[in-house]
Amino acid sequence: MTQLQPGAASAATPSSATSRTRKATRTREATARPGESGAFLDVRNLSVKFPTDDGLVSAVNGMDFSLERGQTLGIVGESGSGKSVTSQALMGLLKGTSAQVTGQAMFQGKDLVTLPESGMRQLRGRNIGMIFQDPLSALHPFYTVGHQIAEAYLVHNNASKKQARAAAVDMLGRVGIPSPEQRFDEYPHHFSGGMRQRAMIAMALICEPELLIADEPTTALDVTVQAQILDLMAELQQETNSALILITHDLGVVAEVCDSVLVMYGGQCVESGPVDEIFYDTRHPYTLGLLKSMPTLNGSSGKLNPIPGQPPSLLDLPKGCIFSARCEYAALAGDGVCAGTRPELVVEDGHGKRCHLSGPQILTIRNTR
Amino acid sequence: MDTQAILQVENLQKHFPIKGGLFSPQGSKTVKAVDGVSFSLGRGQTLGLVGESGCGKSTTGRMIARLMDPTGGRIMIDGVDISKLGGRDLYNFRRKVQMIFQDPFASLNPRQTVGTAIAAPMVVQKITPTGGLKNRVKELLEQVGLKPEHYNRFPHEFSGGQRQRVGIARAISLNPSVIVCDEPVSALDVSVQAQVVNLLQEIQRDTGVSYIFIAHDLSVVRHISHEVAVMYLGKIVEKGSRDELFREPRHPYTKALLSAVPQPDPKAARQQQKIRLRGDLPSPANPPSGCVFRTRCPLFGTLDAEQRELCINHIPAPASAAAPACHHSGLAAAALAGVQ
C-alpha cells in the first residue's frame, strides 16, 4: 500500500502489486443482526415518506439494521430503492424538509430521528462523517480545499487556525495527496476527480468520526482510481476502528470491501446477512436476479438474464410483496400469496430474507439458474 | 486490407489547439485527445473501446460519426474515406453511421413526443417508408421492446431504460451499417442494463449492424464485443480479439485495468493479488515523453536503467493484433503473470 502513504506518490515505488491479505485477517464474526440491543448503531423500523402533489412517496419502508465498530455494512440497491434516503435520514439531512421520518436510529444513546438540529450539528463531522458521491458538487468552489477541511476541525475542536491547518495538511497527506502543504491552498477545480474524492474523505475523517457513511463514494470515478479509494477507505477504517456504511449499486464493490450486506428494493430490506452468505447462499429472488444480470470478467458470455420489468412506483406500492410483479417465481408460493400479502423480514442465523418462498424452494431456484 | 471490414480507421488524430491568453502566442500548444488510432471493424461485429475518462474513446467515436472533424488520418467506410466529406456527401453519409448516447435524459428533446424523435432521422433524410412514417415508427417501437401506443408520449413518462430504448429505435431507423454506442448502459441500473445489452445483441443478430461500443465497464465490454481496443491518453495500447485480450492481457495497463474491476465474488476478492496503479491520468496537454503510460506503469519500477531509458525516450510502436504498444510486453507478461 506504499502509494497511499504521504509523499510516496511522488517517489518511485518498486512495485505496486499489492496483496489484499489484510482483508482476510479482519474480524468478521459480528454481522448486522436486527434484534440485537446495545449495538453501536441500531436502526429500527425507519421509514421516510415525502408528500408530493401526486401523493405520498414511500421512499423507505421499515428498515431494521445494526452495526458494530470496525464493521463495514454495504447497502445495495438500484436507483429509487431508498438507499440514499436512508443515509440522509441517519445524518439528519431531511430535517427541515417536508419529509416524514419515523422510527428509531440509536447512536451513542441518542435517537438520530428525533434529535433536534442543534444536537445533530454536534454529531455531524465529529461523530458521524459523510462522503458524498459527487465530490465536485460537494466541495465549495470558492474556498480552498484546505480551508474546507480545516473548517470541520475548527468547528469541533477548540483549536487555533494554525493547529487546524496542521491537522488538515496531515490529513491530506494521510489520504495520499502528494505535497499536501502546497495542495492545501489550491481550489477544488485544481484537483482531479480522484483527488477531490480523497479531499472529501480527508474532510469526513479529520475529526476521526466513529461512524462513516459513504454514499456511492466511487461511482463517479474510473476503475483504477476506484480501487485506490476503496483501499484507502478500508485502510483508514482499520486505523480508526470506525464503522462504515457503504451505499452502492455495485455488487462488485460490496464483495470487495463489506463484511455484511443489506439488499434494498422499493424502500425495503429484502435480504441481509454476512457478505459471503449473500453471494454464495443467496436467499431472495431479487438478489439472485441482480447477480444473474451482471456480466462478469470470467463468467460465460451467453445471453444476460435481466430482471423483467421496471421497479415499482413508490407512490403506489403493491399490497403484497413489493418485488412480486417482477418475480419469476411468485407462482411457486401458491395462488396469489405473493401479490396478496407482504412478507416479513425473517432472520435465521443472522441471514434475513423477505420472501414467501421456503428455503428448499429458493435452493431449487438457485440450482436451476 | 480486410475485405470484410465495414469500417477502417487509420492513424486517426484529433488535436485541439490550446487558446493562449492575450499575450501568449496562438496555437503554440495542442491537446492530443486522439493521437494515431488505427483499427478495423468487421460487418456484424462489435468493437469495444475501453479506457478511463479522458483517454479519447468518446472523441474517437464522435469522429467516426462525424460529429467532430478529425485533424488527421482516415476513416474508411465501405472503402470510402469519410473523414473530409462535406455538404451533400456528408448528408448522405449520415444514413450509414448513427449514434446512441450515454445519457437518455439529455439526448431526447423533452418537448418532443418519442414518435417525433424516432421519426426525425427519416424526416431529415426525406425517407418515406412503405406503409408510412407513423407505421414505421410503431414497428421500431415494437422492435426495441416498447409499445406502439407509446408513440404520443413524452420522454418524461419513461424510465431510464425505456428512454435508452427510444434512443436505440432512433439510431436504427435508417438501417445504418455502423452504430457508435457511447456508454449506452452506464447510466442504467444493473437489471435494466442487461435488458438493453440483450436488445443491442438481438438487433445486431437481426440486422447485421456493426457496433463501436464505447464503455468504461470492462465486464459489459467483454460481454458484447468481438474485438476490444484499450485506449490510454489518446492512443490504443492494446487490441485484439475479446477472448485473447481478457484471458491474456499483454500490456501492463490492460492488466491493471482488469485487475481493478471489482468482481461479485467476495472469496476471490480476498485472495486475489491486485495491481494498483498510482496516481491519476496525466494531463493530455502535457503527456509524458516516450511511453505515455510510464508514469503509472507497475512494471517501470522493476526495470533497470537501460530499459527505463527506452520507456522515457522512445515512443513504443502502435499496438497491433500481434503486439501491444509496450517496449517490454514480454517482461510484462512474465512479471505480472501471477497477478490477477
Structure description:
By secondary structure, chain A is of the alpha/beta class. Chain A contains 14 helices and 13 strands. Chain A has helices at 21-25, 83-90, 117-123, 135-138, 145-156, 161-174, 180-183, 193-205, 223-240, 251-257, 275-280, 285-293, 337-340, 359-368; strands at residues 17-19, 41-52, 55-67, 72-76, 100-107, 110-111, 128-131, 211-215, 243-248, 260-265, 268-274, 346-348, 351-353. An eight-stranded mixed sheet of chain A has the order 7-8-9-4-10-11-13-12, sandwiched between helices. In chain A, strands 3-2-5-6 form a four-stranded antiparallel sheet, covered by helices on one side. In chain A, a hairpin with a 2-residue loop joins β5 (100-107) and β6. Chain A starts with 16 loop residues before the first strand and ends with a helix. Chain B is of the alpha/beta class. The radius of gyration of chain B is 21 Å and the shape is globular. The model of chain B has no long low-confidence stretch (mean pLDDT 88). At the A-B interface, β1, α8, α9, α10 and α11 of A face α5, α6, α7, α9 and α10 of B.
Question: Which helices and strands occur, and which strands form pairs?
Answer:
The complex is a heterodimer of chains A (about 375) and B (about 350).
Chain A: E1 17-19, H1 21-25, E2 41-52, E3 55-67, E4 72-76, H2 83-90, E5 100-107, E6 110-111, H3 117-123, E7 128-131, H4 135-138, H5 145-156, H6 161-174, H7 180-183, H8 193-205, E8 211-215, H9 223-240, E9 243-248, H10 251-257, E10 260-265, E11 268-274, H11 275-280, H12 285-293, H13 337-340, E12 346-348, E13 351-353, H14 359-368
Parallel strand pairs in A: 4-9, 4-10, 7-8, 8-9
Antiparallel strand pairs in A: 2-3, 2-5, 5-6, 10-11, 11-13, 12-13
Helix pairs in contact in A: 5-6, 5-8, 6-8, 8-9
Chain B: E1 5-17, E2 30-42, E3 46-50, H1 57-64, E4 72-77, E5 80-81, H2 87-93, E6 97-100, H3 114-124, H4 133-143, H5 160-172, E7 178-182, H6 190-207, E8 210-215, H7 218-224, E9 227-232, E10 235-241, H8 242-247, H9 252-260, H10 266-271, E11 273-275, H11 305-313, H12 329-335
Helix pairs in contact in B: 3-4, 3-5, 4-5, 5-6
